[in-house]
Amino acid sequence: MDTDPINNYETIEHDMIHIKDYFKNYKFGIQERLSKLYFLNNLNTSKLNDTSDLLKNSKEKLVEIKNKGKECDQFIFDISSKLYNKSQEIKNEKKNLENLKILLKTKNQEFNDLNHKGDLFQIYETHNSKYKKVCNDIENVLNNIKKFKEELENKKKFNIEELEVYKNKLMSRTRRLSVIQYEKYIEDLYEFYKKMVSKIKGIFEIKIETRSEENKILVFVVNKEKNELKIEIVNGKIESIKGLGDEKKEEFYKKINDPRHVIYNFIYKAK
User: Fold this and answer.
1) What contacts 24+ positions apart, CB below 8 Å, involve 159-163?
2) What residue ranges do the domains of the chain occupy?
3) From which residue to which does any coiled coil extend (predicted)?
4) Of 6, 12, 2, 1, nearest to 104 (Cα)?
């Protein structure tokens, strides 16, 4: 590995260009993640029963995401300013290095001219001291760039972890809402069957039976002519209806998503 600081210095501009390109991609990634989070937030909360609460929460989340976007823009601006300043420092150091090379070339010529005049050691020490100073300056610039890279990596890691925590909170909230809605749906169905089944059986001479299988509810209705109606409900949504004898009505009642209307229609038809 080449340890000469001057040779290492030749790669500084290349490293800075690479850092700028990487940072532009990182900036785009942050903006894309924020946009997706906002979209998922609106999508996941679309099942809320209270529209006014949904709008209020959506506005609050939008403001929160906009604020985070502003913070990211400010962070990106600060980092870009630092990158620009470092780039200018490198350009100046490179210019100084070129001037020093010219000076060294001139001094080398003078050194050759003084080779037989007895001042060789003093001239050598002078040039060597200047050379060491330039090497130290370049080494300091390289160390600053290294520290800056580490700082950038740490900030990037922090932002990604923060977004992951925010995403997990949204997912947890959505799961809780889904469970609450599904439980409420089951309670409504239970109350309906509890109050109406006995009356319906007596009036229309029918038999109603329900079965529960994991996340699925099956409802069977049989009239006095032994005609059977079957309703399949999965995760609170009507998936299939069999027994009405009318595909258009079956599709219509699927959209309504209320098995009570299906049973009413079947009973009325049987009557």
Assistant:
1) 159/30, 159/72, 163/33, 163/37
2) 5-183, 205-270
3) 48-169
4) 6
How do residues 220-259 score in pLDDT, each as one tens digit?
888 778 888 899 988 888 999 998 888 888 899 899 888 8
Quick one: average pLDDT of 88-106?
86
pLDDT(19) > 80: no
Sheet holding 228-234, edge to edge: 207-213, 216-222, 228-234, 237-242
pTM of the full predicted structure?
0.31
The tokens describing 223, both together, are 């009239």
Q: What integer best gives the mean pLDDT of the chain?
A: 73
Confidence of residue 194 (pLDDT cuts 50, 70, 90): low
Give the list of residues 6+ apart from residue 168 with CB closer than 8 angstroms, or none. none
Q: Give the pLDDT mean for 167-183.
A: 62
> What contacts 24+ positions apart, CB below 8 Å, involve 242-246?
244/269, 245/269
